[in-house]
Write a structure and sequence with these properties.
The chain is of the alpha/beta class. The chain folds into 3 domains: 34 residues; 206 residues, P-loop containing nucleotide triphosphate hydrolases (Rossmann fold), CATH 3.40.50.300; 174 residues, 2-Layer Sandwich (Ribosomal Protein S5, domain 2), CATH 3.30.230.
Length: 452
């Protein structure tokens, strides 16, 4: 007797399976995420991929794989120096932020260098892709376009072409005939990604995947999708900003902290060679609450402006709003100022923003945030040619951060002749002729140096 198809309920966020519907997933606690799916019993129909036998680890070749250069320096930096053959790269981001645009531009650059590229779309027709290609000036003869949504059909139709680079836009629109669930479901995304991963490893063809994101900003589908791929890239930036940041959050072949800065224009995304100058070009003069910090993203130093606005709250519950920095970090630094400096900000509305749409996660921004809040509270502007970096501890001490020399050098390149840093970084850093260094050990010393 043939086995009956099994019906299960699968969480669309974490992939947890249950035999009955639940209002909230017991694994990730998300509401209304359980969707009914039917699992077909098709024994023996799952394709198998040949693998290599056991091999001594000492016998494995250590010859480095030759990376493919895309010709877009910012994109190559994020990937760790170029595309690794046989790798799978997942690009995620909000709708309309530039995911399909950057992939089409990358494929065009690779096609111009002599590689056969295949752009597989499940969302647009060939004519729509051609219209977008005309706007982006994409006309390479080695760039091929194919539409469809069945992954088995893709393997059959793409075999005669023997592409050297493949892009799938987007992974949530494709399905496999092995499963009866709808495209975009947990089972379909997991199975299609597994098939593409096996294809990339067997043939050595790099595969790019474009992924949709949920309302929380995470890539839609099961978390196993991010575990399967070799590299995960996220687009950051508000829709109103012309500058977009492509950040690497996972990379098996390079740094996980690299970012690439692009400017959105009518002709597509153009790389920004000196993002520090871009982020500071509209900085106001003689205005309180503005401080410049020197942060490091991967191997790249950046100077960004931290803006703070501290004003008495007209309501009983003061607001704390942070854009580009951790909201909890603001509350921590406000408590440190109140306890260690006697500056009570509990009845003040506090707004902190990183100008330009960049997000800064490292603790080296603490010194700039504290200085900007004090400046706004006292309504006293900071010196325009002053940059700073350092972590603020709960005892009010200023702690050292990594890579102080490249932070100081970046400040000197952009004309900043004074830099505030911790005493430990001051002792360990090499002296700069262009930048005058000032060491501070606590928030009390910071206040005395800047405002007395």
């Amino acid at each position: 007797m043939p086995k009956k198809d099994k019906t299960v309920f699968i969480c669309q966020d974490c992939g947890h399976e249950t035999v009955k519907w639940m209002g909230r997933c017991p694994e990730c606690n998300q509401w209304n995420s359980m969707v009914e799916e039917t699992l077909r019993s098709q024994k023996g129909e799952r394709p198998t991929s040949p693998g290599m036998g056991p091999e001594k680890i000492s016998a494995v070749s250590l010859e480095p794989q030759k990376r493919l250069k895309t010709g877009i320096a910012e994109f190559d930096r994020i990937l760790g120096g170029g595309i690794v053959p046989g790798s799978m790269v997942l690009v995620g981001g909000d709708p309309g932020i530039g995911k399909s645009t950057i992939i089409l531009q990358v494929l065009d650059k690779l096609a111009q260098s002599g590689h056969r590229c295949l752009y597989l779309s499940g969302e647009e027709s060939a004519q729509q892709i051609r219209m977008r290609g005309d706007r982006l000036h994409v006309h390479s003869d080695l760039l091929y376009v194919m539409t469809g949504t069945c992954i088995e059909d893709f393997f059959d139709r793409a075999a005669p072409l023997k592409p050297q680079i493949v892009a799938v836009d987007s992974i949530q629109t494709f399905y496999t005939a092995m499963l009866s669930s709808a495209p975009g479901s947990v089972g379909q995304v997991r199975e299609v990604a597994s098939r593409l991963m096996a294809y990339a490893k067997e043939t050595g063809v790099p595969v790019f995947l474009v992924g949709h994101v949920t309302k929380d900003g995470a890539i839609a589908g099961p978390k196993v999708l991010e575990h399967l791929v070799d590299t995960v890239l996220y687009f950051e930036g508000e829709r109103g900003h012309i500058y977009k940041v492509l950040r690497s959050v996972k990379n098996r072949f390079g740094s996980t902290n690299e970012i690439g800065v692009f400017e959105m224009k009518d002709s597509g995304l153009e790389e920004v060679g000196n993002p520090s100058r871009i982020f500071l070009e509209e900085r106001p003069e003689n205005v309180s609450g503005s401080a410049v910090i020197s942060c490091v993203e991967g191997t790249r130093p950046l100077l960004v402006e931290i803006q703070a606005l501290v004003s008495p709250s007209p309501f009983g519950m003061p607001r704390r709003t942070a854009v580009g920095v951790d909201h909890n970090r603001i509350s921590l630094l406000v408590a440190v100022l109140g306890k260690r400096l006697g500056m009570e900000l509990g009845d003040q509305d506090i707004f902190v923003n990183v100008a330009g749409g960049l997000r800064v996660d490292e603790p080296a921004a603490d010194l700039g945030i504290v200085s900007a809040m004090i400046s706004s509270f006292l309504n006293r502007p900071l010196e325009r040619n002053l940059a700073m970096f350092g972590e603020v501890g709960l005892a009010g001490e200023i702690r050292g951060v990594s890579q102080p020399d490249i932070r100081i050098a970046e400040a000197g390149k952009l004309g900043f002749n004074r830099c505030l840093l911790s005493h430990s970084n001051l002792k360990g850093s090499s002296r700069s002729k262009e930048v005058q260094l000032h060491g501070v050990g606590s928030v009390q010393e910071l206040f005395e140096l800047l405002f007395q």
